[in-house]
Design a protein that fits this description.
Elements lengths: L7 H4 L1 H7 L28 E7 L2 E8 L11 E7 L8 H11 L4 E6 L15 H14 L4 E11 L1 H10 L7 E5 L5 H10 L7 H7 L7 H5 L14 E6 L8 H12 L4 E6 L6 H4 L7 H21 L2
Parallel strand pairs: 3-4, 3-5, 5-6, 6-7, 7-8
Antiparallel strand pairs: 1-2, 2-4
Helix pairs in contact: 4-5
């Protein structure tokens, strides 16, 4: 799936993770894809385009509500979805958010700083954390949202953002992290030892030449270091065959949470690769990812029912 060493794909590994999964599934729409006009029954119809402030920045977002009459007149639990990549809200993200909204949730998906018309620049799990904290305050005041029942769900890059945000607030009741980097030091070593070049522009800007060159860049993105500050139940999902962020990351993070006495559940999915929760069929991924996705959706839904009562 990936060529290593000096190949173009190898050189862009880190940027590709932050930029999303379109390079893994080259025939699928890019993460900057815009829905075509005139498709009245498309899944993103009925979503609201909203904007809120994060510090001095304007952040754009999509908001999905349950498809029931007068949905805004009833207080629903809410999910703030922290998407993968750094290229904004993809078609697949829109479909995934619509799917969760049809479970009975208000689903709010920010396009983080530097994406989709949001102010600022991409910072990779740094300023984006403040974007999520500001989103929590904004969502609590939306019509039709129960401010006492808000969950964070993040995938890939968004998973790390969600973890870091959860460690800085007591206003969420559940955290779901899916195939995120939770030990950035081990992940950096993994990339190096597996022959991937980390010298793309975004990685250089964010991480320099590594932990010795930019120690603070790694320190502030180490999920393990903030695990003790997470106060809500946590669900961790990871694919057994993830070649981008190995499952060892999830196994270790779960162990850290358990040692700290946290309410943490870990689910691993056989043969599933990176991105399976959002990018499985019909989005041209592998059949094994589709099977894992169905099980993972059941696990997510059950976890939300238990924690959002």
């Amino acid at each position: 799936m990936l060529r290593r060493g000096g190949s173009r794909l190898g050189a862009l590994l880190l940027a590709s993770l932050w930029a999303g999964l379109s390079w893994i599934f080259p025939t699928s729409p890019t993460l900057c894809w815009s829905p075509p006009r005139g498709k009245k029954r498309a899944a993103w119809q009925g979503s609201e385009r909203l904007a809120y402030t994060s510090g001095k920045l304007k952040i754009t977002a999509r908001c999905f509500r349950p498809r029931i009459r007068n949905a805004a007149a009833t207080a629903h639990p809410a999910i703030i979805y922290c998407h993968d990549g750094v290229s904004g809200i993809s078609r697949e993200t829109l479909l995934f958010c619509r799917e969760m909204a049809d479970w009975g949730y208000v689903v709010f998906a920010p396009a983080f700083r530097g994406e989709d018309g949001s102010d600022g620049e991409v910072e990779v799990a740094k300023g984006e954390v403040q974007d999520v904290l500001s989103a929590i305050s904004f969502v609590k005041k939306l019509p039709g949202v129960d401010p006492r029942r808000i969950a964070l769900l993040g995938t890939s890059h968004g998973a790390l953002i969600a973890i870091l945000a959860a460690s800085r607030t007591s206003e969420i009741v559940a955290l779901i992290e899916c195939y995120g980097v939770t030990n950035v030091y081990a992940w950096w070593d993994y990339l190096k030892t597996h022959g991937f070049d980390t010298d793309d522009p975004l990685s250089r800007k964010t991480y320099g030449k590594g932990p010795k060159d930019r120690p603070q860049a790694f320190e502030i993105r180490d999920a393990r270091a903030v695990a003790h500050r997470i106060s809500c139940p946590v669900l961790i999902l990871h694919g057994e065959k993830d070649r981008i962020v190995p499952a060892d990351q999830a196994i270790e993070f779960h162990s850290v949470l358990v040692r700290l006495g946290k309410n943490a559940t870990f689910k691993q999915y056989k043969d599933a690769g990176h991105g399976f929760l959002v990018y499985a069929p019909p989005f041209r991924s592998r059949d094994s990812d589709s099977v894992a996705r169905k099980q993972a959706l059941d696990d997510v839904r059950d976890f939300l029912v238990q924690t959002m009562r």
